[in-house]
Design a protein that fits this description.
By secondary structure, the protein is α+β, with helices and mostly antiparallel strands. 26% of the residues lie in helices and 21% in strands. The protein has four helices and seven strands, in the order αββααβαββββ. A five-stranded mixed sheet has the order 3-7-6-5-4, covered by helices on one side. The model has no long low-confidence stretch (mean pLDDT 90). Bound molecules: zinc ion.
């Protein structure tokens, strides 16, 4: 379990003490953690979904889902991986520098109430609570390949 204070310190430093919404500087003791994808709608309490916010912006935002939540979650996830904040289950076999390289290729997100799935070409990372608990690699069918069985 990650300490709330540690999360706050990390997010504050990562966002350089600037409110993610209005761009104004916030003092550490006045900052709030905003769930970018709203907590009330199942947004994760995780590094990739928490941003530095002033109290006013956090209050005004309420449960609005920002249009760019996917891009922001992906960017912040990459950041958290680079910063060594994302842990892996013991059966997820990938070394840190390969994981960093892989996350650079993430293109999209699927999410449900339980977890977030980050997907890139040929792979999926299943993430819950700042932890990759499953990694799936799959072969991609090339979109323009003509795969037709041959008959004699
Ligand atoms: Zn603000």
């Amino acid at each position: 379990m990650i300490q709330k204070k540690n999360i706050k310190e990390y997010v504050f430093n990562r966002d350089k003490g600037i409110c993610y919404h209005c761009g104004k500087p916030v003092r550490f003791n006045k900052m709030t953690l905003d769930h970018y994808f709203p907590k009330s709608l199942g947004g994760a309490e995780a590094y990739y979904n928490l941003v530095c916010s002033c109290k006013t912006c956090n209050r005004l935002k309420k449960s609005v889902v920002p249009k760019d939540w996917m891009t922001v979650n992906i960017e912040l996830f990459k950041c958290a991986v680079v910063d060594g904040k994302i842990t892996k289950a013991s059966d997820v076999y990938i070394v840190q520098n390969q994981l960093v390289a892989l996350t650079q290729k993430i293109e999209t997100i699927f999410r449900n109430k339980v977890n977030t799935v980050f997907e890139g070409p040929g792979f999926r990372l299943y993430v819950k609570d700042n932890r990759i608990y499953k990694m799936v690699k799959f072969h991609q069918m090339e979109a323009d390949s003509n795969f037709e069985p041959e008959f004699e």
